[in-house]
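Write out the 3D structure for:
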Amino acid sequence: MKVLNQRAPRIPVPDDLRTPDGTLDPYAAYQPEISAGRYALVNAAAGSGALDAVTTELVRLRNAHLQGCVVCSNLRYASARRAGLDEAGVAQVWNYEAGTLPERQKMALRLADAFVIGMGQVSSDLSLQARRYLSEDEITEIGIAMFRFSLNKVRVAMHTDAEEFSIKHVD
């Protein structure tokens, strides 16, 4: 499966967008000190492990879909694959309410929607419903994960995300 980004960059994109360690990063080309700080923040906000790997991956993919990130939509993490997430499960992210995901995972995706579509506004009703399926630690981890996953969306807004990116499996 290949997803194409049909947009022209809003800023000039250097030929080499890689950091010294080889990571593709347009931030590094323009603001290396901000790039280093961003990576430190992403690492500090890494999950506590309260949320299982499959649900975390579903939330990450939902965020990618909602924000239109070509790269994030096509990455697949090994921890989720090892825990049983396959492409059939991934495909349900786009229309999860009609799918067969467990209600607990659907609730996590509803929270992801509230963070992105609702601009972080979680209704009292959704908050109460979430507590039926998810612990406080899991709900907190979803919020932190949404923050962490959204740090890359400047690339999407500036159209410097990949123009073409096939599904890639990473550890």
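The chain has ten helices and four strands.
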